[in-house]
Amino acid sequence: MLTAPADAGLVPERLDMECADAVSRCLARDGAVVLTGQTPSPRALTVAAAFALGEQLRQLFPQRQRSSSEGSPVHLHADSFDIVVDLAGVPTRRRHPDEDYALVQLTRPPLSGGESFVADAYRFVDTLRTADPELWDFLTRTDVDFYGAWGGLRGLPSTPRAGRHVEYTRSGRRIVRRSDGAVPLHRDPDEEHIKVMLARFEERVGALESTLPRFPLEEGDILILDNYRCWHGRDAHTGERTTRILTLLSADAR
């Protein structure tokens, strides 16, 4: 069985709104921070985005609420989707495949369980250079269709979203993608090899997830993530658990 590269776990620092500079520094240093003492509300998420990113904010996407009762685990992922709707005759984006920050506010804690976990994907993939060079080569050199497994979903563009798991923006910012929608491109001559690599990547990430430190979110807490750098998830829980999620583009997004 494949083992997970070590030292990719992250427990975000918990900070309040006394100092925006400290929040920004932690986010830049670690890729994640928890903003504490917030009122569970849509307004709080919007204010938190401005507080953390300031003049770097470029575009906010519609907030979405997620509730689960007796919820199963949510495995490691980076928020990314491509949804365009027709709004009064105008094509309008509700999600963006290159959204670079995600904010998750816990608005209703479960009875038990539901602890969060975060992985520093930069550190994870860097260890693959020596731990699994073949997988590293695949992640950095091979195009896949990131939403191919979700074909037919309403609002999802029919054009395949081709890209590599590890890419860079024009300014040199690294993106490490994590999506369970990835499949080989249509009629790719290396289709079978790509399927093997996607399965190996899944196994590696699963092994990593089991080693990550867990941390609780309190009601109103907002987990702010650099979506290019950090993957996140949560454990199973009992009772109902509700979060509100905001994704966005900053000025240095792709």
TrEMBL record:
Domain TauD/TfdA-like residue range list: 14-242
| Cited Pfam families | TauD
Output one GO BP term: antibiotic biosynthetic process
Which cofactors does this protein require?
A: Fe(2+)
SUPFAM superfamilies with a match to the protein in the record: Clavaminate synthase-like (SSF51197)
> What species is this protein from?
Streptomyces abyssalis
- Please give the start and end residues of each transmembrane region: none
Q: Which domain of life is it from?
A: Bacteria
Protein name, please?
TauD/TfdA-like domain-containing protein
Entry's Gene Ontology molecular function annotations: oxidoreductase activity
Keywords for this protein: Antibiotic biosynthesis, Iron, Oxidoreductase
Q: Which residues form the signal peptide?
A: none
InterPro entries this protein is in?
AlphaKG_dependent_hydroxylases, TauD-like_sf, TauD/TfdA-like
